[in-house]
């Protein structure tokens, strides 16, 4: 089916870098088995009387039967993504919903609608949709399908339907009630372990995120100083005769290394920083999922407690208890499966990301090595030529 | 190459030691003394090791030696001493004169200075220099007895000459410009190099933070643990490697610094020329005016306004005898002046000839040394790159096994 193969290349207007294409195919499904391809590109500014906002083009190509067509193109704004995420969380409270890029950037370095901010956000939104598409359960979610396929007005009207405010209030009340009760009494060992894991993991990921940013900053400052270093040698060569060429050659070597260090920086910001940031966002998501599972179990336990005092009429409530028990079992199973899947993906992501970073650094040093070695070769040739000419009487 | 001291005598500055003592004002002070060891080269060819002579000198004695050489051989580009205070430091380096790394680099710089003097065809033959290397006691007195300080030109005199000289040899003027440019560009280069070194230090050291985090993270991971742990170790190696790298680069910086200071030595030779030329021009001018005076007295015409002329007009002219006496004095002075002018001319031409010979020697030395320095810089960078490749190859392997 040639349309599937072409779906990989997408439209030329979409600026997918080679590294992000590799990122896409890190997902557990083999590319050939995928039947849903999504791309987020082409940010556009919209100015109305009330507000200014950006929309992104979402292109979908699919061979699935549930979809009426094999290709869709819609425009979505950040709000729409937020809506989708909250619908997914509602429908699957104990599944790990991928992170969305943040609403605002706290660092203050990037302006709200700067090109850099928009591009970073676009890439993250692209990642989000693809992660959802790769999830064995979420990929078949109805709201997800609507998000990908509905025209703007269709989406608006669909958004207005559904549970809405009251159900959200109910969720909050249950959450508060469960935390007031003091949490869950008989939490299975497995989930306690997950909690402990997340405590350490979130700490380490946060630290790694900071380290990665520090490294980027130091590399950038190094690059800024290097920019000045080469030209001084060229300036010097203007006062010299014999060594002018050597000086100019050194200047050109330094400039080449300078460019190489710029590439290294870019690699870091394209490969490492986004992934670490994503996993920092995952911290909250995972803690949230574990809490919600606790809540569900808490509901069951509080019902059981409440009914324990009423010795009679137990049979009347056995169906209710049974339903709650099922709910807990479903939630546990869903979470367990998704947790394993998440861990596998995380391991995969970390492996390929850090391997890429190492490769990046390798390329940097290899390029610099080649530059200096060729300089050295040219100098020793000159040296021998000079020595020969001295021997002549 | 002529047979110079360096070929007959092995010279090293092998040790540095902290000392306390009383200085000229009887105030307690701490200083560093350097051990100079010398050994005759010839006897080594017989398979025997000649005995090593040694003595201690402090930096101020080196300065005295150099001042003596500069004054005594003004036509020579005298090798410079290593810097007195640590300049162009990047932040991890100490600016403290007592810092062991600074002392060590100064020790090498002083050895380099002695070797440069010992391999100079003219300077190596100087007796004071030889005594500096071999005679521990009484050397200072010996130097002062030469009375070289009296021969030194005052800075003010030299400045005056620089401004007023009319016809200096153009080559010296060009050389002065060159040495200004050289000084300016090398200073700039060293400043930026220090900043680059600072930044490079930051990049490497920050990677050291990976080690601990990876190690702590590996504790909660089953499959990823080993890869993380070993990768962290390689990051530690990477971070630690920068210390040696930058230490080696300091030697390169010292090589450039030597030529930064050589610029001043070049300027000193140019200044001497300007001084001599100015002196010559003044002497010629003086002679010309005396000749004119003589002519005026002889012919009785006053061509230029003079106070004498006015007073004689007002108070009456001199007697013929007085005039004769004056003419005789002037004629003697003129003869003296002509002889002086002749010898000054000769001196000046000799100076230009020998100075320019040494400058050509210096130029060749400079081109050779700087080219070698650039090559050694490239060699250093290659080594840094190879180390980087090794570390990141190892790290990549660890990561790919996570």
TrEMBL record, chain A:
Belongs to the sorting nexin family. Residues 307-334 form a coiled coil. One of its GO terms (molecular function) is phosphatidylinositol binding. Gene3D superfamilies: Arfaptin homology (AH) domain/BAR domain, Phox-like domain. Keywords: Coiled coil, Protein transport, Transport. InterPro entries: AH/BAR_dom_sf (IPR027267), BAR_SNX7 (IPR042131), PX_dom (IPR001683), PX_dom_sf (IPR036871), PX_SNX7 (IPR042130). This is Sorting nexin-7. PANTHER family: SORTING NEXIN-4 (PTHR45949), SORTING NEXIN-7 (PTHR45949:SF3). Residues 34-155 form the PX domain. It holds the Pfam family PX.
Automatic annotation (TrEMBL), chain B:
The keyword Acetylation does not apply. The keyword Protein transport applies. It comes from the Eukaryota. One of its GO terms (cellular component) is SNARE complex. Keywords: Protein transport, Transport. One of its GO terms (molecular function) is phosphatidylinositol-3-phosphate binding. GO terms for biological process: positive regulation of autophagosome assembly; protein transport. Residues 12-139 form the PX domain. Belongs to the sorting nexin family. This is Sorting nexin-4. It comes from Opisthocomus hoazin.
